[in-house]
Design a protein that fits this description.
Blueprint lengths: L2 H14 L5 H9 L7 H9 L4 E6 L2 E2 L3 E2 L6 H10 L4 E5 L2 H4 L3 H10 L4 E4 L5 H10 L3 E5 L5 H13 L3 E6 L2 H9 L4 E5 L12 H5 L8 E5 L5 H10 L3 E4 L1 H4 L4 H9 L13
Parallel strand pairs: 1-4, 1-10, 4-5, 5-6, 6-7, 7-8, 8-9, 9-10
Antiparallel strand pairs: 2-3
Helix pairs in contact: 2-7, 4-6, 11-13
């Protein structure tokens, strides 16, 4: 059994034992404060450089603790000040050390939109994201069958959440496009082995239509890789470990965003 399957089995078991009413959660989610436009924020920031989704991540299964005692509100505000277009918050506790409270605190501390990054396996997960204050939700193609992917994408849009649909290869990309995904993340990390292929995003970009916002995820180690991904056509990056562990997050964000006035700025890399 792969690590991903173990995570999914755990989340599905939790959902199976969840006795909460979907109808009541949906009603509460529908009455939540207006969302801040996650996809719209990426589009706006990408006009001046590549948009960065800065991640709040306490630990990872492959690297262990990254910043276990972080303050989500403080870190989110630091990312916002540094020019991040949006924030991603891990809410998976068992594998990433995150929590619903991390997202709630981060969302309250900033004006830019927030992605709930977790393993969405149930409709109530989407309602929870909206109630917590998220503006976007992650849908992983390899974690869902086609019917679930389509239903979850439609429910997310119905609740005014932007669904970020994550793919790992061309087959998954075709599936994401077949259900109408307009915000697609290419994860360069294999969730089965946790190995990173830094060329995967560049290889898949030609298969992503121009009307889809493309996000590169994982394996981004500094300004040079960010610049290369922007050149091939990515609108945004999702960056976690590099930023969480940085001693100067303002500088790192500046190097990643590659902001320019008419032309690209010189890039110092990492």
């Amino acid at each position: 059994m792969t690590y991903l399957q173990k995570i999914l089995d755990s989340h599905r078991l939790k959902a199976k034992n969840d006795n909460r009413s979907f109808e009541l959660l949906y009603e509460k989610a529908s009455e939540s404060v207006p969302t801040r436009g996650f996809k719209k924020a990426l589009t706006k920031h990408s006009r001046e450089g590549i948009a960065v989704i800065a991640e709040i991540k306490r630990r990872s299964p492959s690297k262990g603790n990254l910043f276990a005692d972080l303050d989500p509100g403080v870190l989110a505000a630091e990312y916002e000040s540094g020019g991040a277009a949006a924030i991603s918050v891990l809410t998976d506790k068992e594998n990433f050390g995150g929590s619903d409270e991390d997202l709630i605190e981060a969302s309250k501390a900033i004006k830019i939109p927030v992605l709930r990054k977790d393993f969405t396996v149930d409709q109530r997960d989407i309602c929870d994201a909206r109630i917590m204050g998220a503006d976007a939700v992650l849908l992983i193609v390899s974690a869902l069958d086609r019917a679930e992917l389509k239903d979850f994408l439609e429910l997310s849009i119905e609740l005014d959440l932007d669904p970020l649909v994550e793919v790992h290869d061309e087959k998954e990309l075709d599936e994401a496009l077949s259900v109408g995904a307009k915000l697609i993340g290419v994860n360069q990390r294999d969730l089965k082995s946790f190995d990173v292929d830094p060329l995967k995003a560049a290889d898949l970009i030609s298969k992503i239509p121009g009307d889809v916002t493309a996000v590169a995820e994982s394996g981004i180690d500094g300004g040079n890789s960010a610049r290369n991904l922007m050149r091939v056509g990515y609108s945004a990056l999702l960056v976690g470990e590099l930023l969480v562990k940085s001693n100067d997050r303002m500088k790192t964000l500046s190097e990643l965003t590659n902001k320019f006035d008419g032309k690209m700025t010189n890039d110092t890399g990492e």
